[in-house]
Design goal:
By secondary structure, the protein is mainly beta. The protein is built from 2 helices and 12 strands, in the order βββαβββββββββα. It has a single domain (3-205), classed as LURP1-related (Porin, Beta Barrel), CATH 2.40.160.200. The chain has a 12-stranded antiparallel barrel with strand order 1-2-3-4-5-6-7-8-9-10-11-12. The chain is globular, with a radius of gyration of 16 Å.
Length: 209
């Protein structure tokens, strides 16, 4: 099975000495390696980022044994950062924007045309949050560090968490990419490791709640 045919993922951060870039291993519920997510940031972007905030960077998600990205997270922009998800052909599939003035925090997800397709609510920095459809009534997936059964043994590290896709979205490849991508983005690009959470919002997020 390919990585995106699965509905349960275990994401573990890999230690990279002498590097500030993130690297993650993605496994199934039995511990089998499905792929990796590796961040790369160019030297010029790092230098500019030192003066203007978190640098432009990308995270490529690859199948195990393959060099071609299945999809990529991309943070770009200088004054207003934007985090986008693009497919293997370079087409933008969605964008993440923070709820900058919400007491509960969270994010909105928009597709390539700007249509609101999901809302993320919960405790982002504790890896306990849920994806809902825009009306807030239907769960699309969730991220959690609390799992049982065969997956429990995999959570031996503080930097390991589970990503679950709900059955109704099991055949929705775009939704899977956006949910799995968001889990890594919130950890690596939008949180303490990658700069202020608000950096994901940009100027367009200021009026969202």
């Amino acid at each position: 099975m390919s990585m995106l045919e699965h509905n349960l993922f275990v994401v573990s951060e890999k230690t990279k000495f002498f590097s500030s870039n993130g690297a993650y291993e993605i496994r199934d519920s039995e511990g089998n390696v499905l792929g990796t997510a590796v961040q790369t940031t160019g030297l010029m972007a790092k230098l500019i980022g030192m003066a203007k905030g978190p640098p432009s960077t990308k995270i490529e998600f690859k199948e195990a044994g393959s060099e071609a990205p299945v999809f990529t997270l991309r943070r770009r922009g200088f004054l207003f950062k934007k985090i986008e998800l693009i497919d293997g052909k370079g087409t933008v599939l969605g964008r993440y924007k923070s709820k900058r003035f919400s007491l509960s925090g969270g994010f909105h997800v928009y597709d390539e045309s700007g249509k609101h397709i999901a809302e993320i609510r919960g405790k982002m920095m504790k890896f306990e949050y849920t994806f809902f459809t825009p009306d807030g009534k239907t769960e699309m997936g969730k991220v959690s560090k609390k799992w049982g059964g065969a997956m429990k043994e995999l959570f031996t590290s503080a930097d390991t968490y589970g990503v679950e896709i709900k059955p109704a979205f099991a055949e929705n490849t775009k939704a899977k990419m956006l949910i799995l991508g968001a889990a890594v983005a919130i950890d690596c690009l939008m949180g303490a490791k990658g700069g202020a959470v608000a950096a994901a919002g940009g100027e367009e997020a200021e009026s969202e709640d």
